[in-house]
Structure formats: structure tokens, C-alpha cells
Amino acid sequence: MKRVLMVFCLIAAGCAGGEKKQAKTADDEAAPPPPSDEKIQEAKQKNAKKQEDKALAAESPAKAKKMAVVDRADFDAAVKRWEDAKKDKNGLTKAEAKSLSSKFASLASSHPDLAAQAHFNAGTLLDQAGDSKEAEQEYQAALSANPAYGPALNNLGEIYYRSGSPQRAREWFDKAIAADPTHNAPAYNNMALILFQEAKEAGNPAGYKEAVSKLRRALAIDNNSMPAYALLAFIYYTTAENDRSKLQLAELVCKQAKDVDDKYAPIYNTQGLIQLRKKNVTGALKEFEKAVELDPRMLEAYLNIGAIGLSSRQYEKAEKAFQVALSLKADSVDATIGIAVAQRGEKKFDAAEASYKKAKELDPKNCSVSYNLGVLYQDYKNDPNNQNLKDAQKFYNEYVSCGGKTTPGKIADAQRRIKDIDDTFTALEQQKKMEAEVKVQQEESERQQKALEEQQKAEAEKAKNAPAPAPAPAPKEEAPKGKK
Prior knowledge:
The chain contains 22 helices and no strands. It has a domain at about 365-435. It has helices at about 25-30, 35-55, 60-70, 75-85, 95-110, 115-130, 130-145, 150-160, 165-180, 185-200, 205-220, 225-240, 245-260, 265-275, 280-295, 300-310, 315-330, 335-345, 350-360, 365-380, 385-400, 410-465. It is rod-shaped and about 190 Å long. By secondary structure, it is mainly α.
């Protein structure tokens, strides 16, 4: 019934955060705040009093105990229906989940002592059915019955985290831990996740240590907490770049996790990342494929399979993996960019252009989209008027001045490409000028040739029309000289 967020930064994905607790955004402010410390403390005192009363009731006659069991028989029957559905590989349909949720919600009014748990169960079923709004209402109803009900505090934090309110979610996780510090392992896990994301974004080693501390606390409460094992292994993997011994720790945690549950998909995904770090691409692919076999809805593993396909130039395979990722999360920027790169590799340049533009619409601040569009226009899209080069240069300039996540190597490459395009246009202008000069010279030569031909023609015509010259007079004959 208790859940935990599982949102990791993987090969093709990034995480948001900061070294310190960030200021609330408009979304954070829009999400409701958790109950006050005073309200939670008051509820905890009431709950403690009820526990004392139950302890006293245990000394009452057996009839009173029997009545207590009968009173919650319908609640237990609903729980059994849920547990039986979990054993079915197909699980509950959305309609069945909503029906069972309604059953728990109705039981809350007839079982005041179980109202918080009943509403929480109703909310969890709705949450799993994809109806976060109604789930939120049920979790809030659970808190109306018991403001110190830790699982509801935690799950409301998850809802607000998913809706883009991480700082508000953090407050809910804090309250969940304060309400039940010795049992609420999921809240420790979720707080560890937020601390990890902030530390990763800021490069803050102290943040990693704090996240690990929360996870150790979670495992102390529940040594079978697979989300805690998975995040702990991933933190060690993330920090192994500067400390190779952490990679061994990550592998060790994965092994310990498998001893608890060898069918938990995130562990295989992390093992795949470890194998990639060790340059064992084949082994990594095997782990990622095992992850999606165990959990066909594991977005991160599909992204990683797609990334391997791109790196090995298996573009068709990569595109298929990213398409599955998009079917799981239609607004995944990473999957959209991955598809665009694969399509470019498959020489489907128009399709790649459309995919890149879709990614830009999904995340206008994503710097890598601008860089990739620049490459596409410069190297793959041809235009007789060289408009593609002008477009490429525009996108490179966008990348250089992006201000978001960029890499020094790519910035240098974008600047080099901008210069190359400038040089190309300069060369084209020089060529155009030379061609114009040659044309002028050619035209002048042709004009002179034509003038010469016309002159020759005129002279020929003149000669043709000139009167024939008079015949020269015949020579006079001399008389023969006589003989002397």
C-alpha cells in the first residue's frame, strides 16, 4: 500500500535541483501546504491515547475482542480482494480499481477508527488507476481523520512532486517523517531522491551523503525496501566517476537487492549503467532488456536501450525503443530527441526535422535541440539558396547563448561551425564577385569580337559593292625596225 517515487537521472535524461533548497515556484505555491506541526503533534497524542485505550481493551472479556473482529470483517474482506488481485498477473482493471476504491471510501464512514486507512486505501487504488485528482481527495480525507497519518502525507507529497511542485512535495515528505519517524520508509526514500537530485545538479558531495543517510534510515526501518536499494546503488554509481570504489559499492548493493527480490526492474537498469561505465556494452544491453522484460513500463530502460542503439548506429532499433518510451510518456523530451537522432541516421531528414521541432516545443529551453537542429540543417538539409546554412547558424547561435545545459566541447564545436558557415558565405561572395568579373570580361571580349566581325563584314560588303576597275590600256605595238 505504501509506495515511493522512482525517478532517476539516466543516460538520456536530466534532473532538476540545486545545492540549497530552492525557492518555491508558482506551481509549488499552488499546491496545498501540509498540516502544521501543531496539528500533527495533536493528532499523534490522540493516536497514542487510542493505543492506550486499546491496550486496556485487551484486558476486557473475550466477547469485546470478538466484537472488534466482527466490526471490521467487511474492511478485511475488501483488503483481501485487493491482495488477491495483486497476485493476478493482470491485476485490477481501471474500473475494478475504482470500484474497490469506492468500497473503501464507503467503509470509512462506518468504521471511524479505520477511516484514515480506508481513505488511504481508496486513494492508493485511484492513484494506481491514474486518477491523481480523486486520489488526492481521498488522501486529504485520510488526513482529516488523522492528520498524523504518515502514508497519506507521503503519497500527497508524491502527487505534488509529479505535478511539478518539488519544494511543496519536500514539505509533505518532511511532515510524513515527523509524523512517523520509525515506520515511514517511503518518506525517507522520497526525501533521499530530492536530496540526490539537488546534489547532482549542483555537484554537491554533502548532498549525496545526506541522501545516503536517509536511505540507510529507510533500510533500517525496512530492510526489504527495494526502492531504497535501487536509489542507494544509483547514488554510488553516480559518484563513482570520481571514486572508482563506489562502482564496486553500487554492484554490491545491486547484489544485496537481488537477494531480497531478483525481479525488481530498477536494479537491472542500474546494473546496465554500471556495465556501460565498465565499457561492457553487450552486458549493459542485456541488463536493460531484462529490466523492460520485468517491467514493460520502465521508461528509463527504454531510453537507455535507445541510447545504445544510437551509439552503435543501430538506428532502426534505437527508434523503436524511443517510440516505446514515447508511448509511455508522450511528452518525453529525451525520447523525442532520441527519435530525431535515429531518423537522421536513417536518412529520414524531414522526419528528423519534425521530431527536433517537436522536442523544441516540448522544452524550449533545451539547449541540445538547438545544436542538433544546427547540425541537421548544415550537414543534411540542402537548399539551392543556402538558406539551410543561415538556419543552421541561427540554431548554433541559440545554442551558444542558451544559458542552460551546454558542454564546453559542443560550444566550441558550435562556434567553429558558425565560423565555417561565415567562411562559406565569404567564399561564396568572393566566387560570385569573381564570376561577375569574368562575366564582364567575357561580355567585353564578346563585344570586341562582335565589333571586329561587324567591321570585317562591312569591309567585305564595301569591297563587294565597289565598281569594277577600268581595264588597263593595251600596250602599243612598236614598228619593226628595218635592217640597216
